[in-house]
Amino acid sequence: MAKKRILVVDNEEYIQEITKICLETVADWEVITASSGKEGITKAENYQPDAILLDVMMPDMDGIAAFANLQANPNTKEIPVILLTAKIQDADRRRYAQLGMKSAIAKPFKPLELAVQVADTLGWSL
Fold first, then answer.
1. Which of 47, 53, 56, 73 is deepest in the core (most CB within 10 A)?
2. Count of structural domains, the chain
């Protein structure tokens, strides 16, 4: 089976690093990182990841706007998106689901549990 490719879009460099290390170590997935919504959209088009972990609160283009752009693009609209966010009240979860996002994972997350959370959400085996 081909190795899963995950795109992590977060403006916080340490979140990118922790996420990359955890997903590569625990799940043996390939992890690509982006520091902004615009960069994430470009990398999603170029790398065609199996899933995207997308931060909500980013400067310039937030995660909701980046998601809208991904959904509007025929080359990226089928890629499942999971939000990484500190904004995770029930109302937020309902809104994210209505927009078409797969799920939301609360920040701060438990690094060693992240791969399991992503795999469970997407129906992948580890």
1. 53
2. 1
Assign residue 50 the CATH number of its domain: 3.40.50.2300
3-state secondary structure of 26: helix
pTM of the model: 0.92
Nearest Cα to 109, choosing from 11, 50, 23, 28? 23
pLDDT averaged per 10 residues in sequence order, the chain, 126 residues: 92 95 96 98 98 93 94 97 82 76 87 94 92
Q: Pairing between strand 51-55 and 5-9?
A: parallel
What residues contact 100, with CB distance under 8 A and at least 6 apart? 67, 71, 81
pLDDT of res. 1: 62
Range of the domain at 57: 5-122
SS3 15: helix
